[in-house]
Design the sequence.
């Protein structure tokens, strides 16, 4: 709850300050895009301050103090051995967005705008999947360390099922409410049409994205971060960007270019299932301690 409180306060700060700093409301100078950036940094700062205050005043479960700030190289090495793959995965999303904006810019500014809006909308769905992924990782990791074959097996099974169900629900919502969601942003008719098309086509990849996202949590739990990176590279860079470029060179670019994303998710899903089976045989089936 402390973490959630800090993050919500930061997000609300960002939302409130965005129009104020972009358009120059309440006596603030109008800063345009720079204002949006400043609002984001301000939101992050507010989250940090609130998290820090809650930690030292409310959180009794974790001891804090100057003595705990002394670096421990073995702990740092252990954290980064698991965390590097997650850091790179987050960075890849930014690289993909940057690449897509450049590629779609060859088609029209409306295509770039439509993708940017869809990207924000799809985050609500993906964040639900990411939340489940981040729950899968500690559950499986703990029980793997504990030697509980049954719990690890159940964690993998239900992690895959639950994440896929959430993503399918997101798919249905975007398919059913594509037009109302696009109208919220007051777009031109051309941009709105492209945004609806993007939602309808790209969201079909959510079926495969559930497996991809859940499997990445499993890989990290079973100390196989490299497999997570393989899936991320396939679904975010290796497949969608070259395909998007190729599709923008074809006659029906406005329709075809959106298919690069679900195709990327489908290819990554095939690789994820293959890698998941391999790591399951290597790590789970060979567990020496079998407990209920």
Sequence:
């Amino acid at each position: 709850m402390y973490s959630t409180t800090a993050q919500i306060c930061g997000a609300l700060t960002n939302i409130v300050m965005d129009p104020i700093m972009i358009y120059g409301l309440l006596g603030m100078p109008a800063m345009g895009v720079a204002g949006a950036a400043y609002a984001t940094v301000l939101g992050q700062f507010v989250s940090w301050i609130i998290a820090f205050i809650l930690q030292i005043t409310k959180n009794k479960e974790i001891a804090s103090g100057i003595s705990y700030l002394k670096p421990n190289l073995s702990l740092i090495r252990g954290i980064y051995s698991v965390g590097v793959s997650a850091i790179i995965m987050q960075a890849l999303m930014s690289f993909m967005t940057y690449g897509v904006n450049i590629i779609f810019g060859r088609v029209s500014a409306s295509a770039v705008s439509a993708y940017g809006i869809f990207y924000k909308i799809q985050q609500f769905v993906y964040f639900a999947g990411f939340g489940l992924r981040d729950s899968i990782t500690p559950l499986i990791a703990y029980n793997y360390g504990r030697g509980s074959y049954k719990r690890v097996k159940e964690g993998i099974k239900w992690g895959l099922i639950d994440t896929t169900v959430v993503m399918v629900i997101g798919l249905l919502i975007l398919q059913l409410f594509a037009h109302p969601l696009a109208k919220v942003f007051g777009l031109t008719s051309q941009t709105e049409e492209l945004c609806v098309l993007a939602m309808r086509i790209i969201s079909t990849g959510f079926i495969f994205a559930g497996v991809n996202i859940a499997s990445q949590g499993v890989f990290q739990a079973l100390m196989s971060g490299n497999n997570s990176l393989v899936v991320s590279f396939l679904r975010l860079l290796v497949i969608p960007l070259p395909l998007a470029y190729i599709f923008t060179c074809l006659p029906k670019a406005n329709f075809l270019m959106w298919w690069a994303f679900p195709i990327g998710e489908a290819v990554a899903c095939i690789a994820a299932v293959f890698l998941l089976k391999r790591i399951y045989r290597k790590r789970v089936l060979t567990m020496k301690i079998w407990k209920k």
Notes: The longest helix spans residues 109-146. The chain has twelve helices and no strands. The mean pLDDT is 89. Residues 212 and 269 are 6 Å apart (CA to CA).
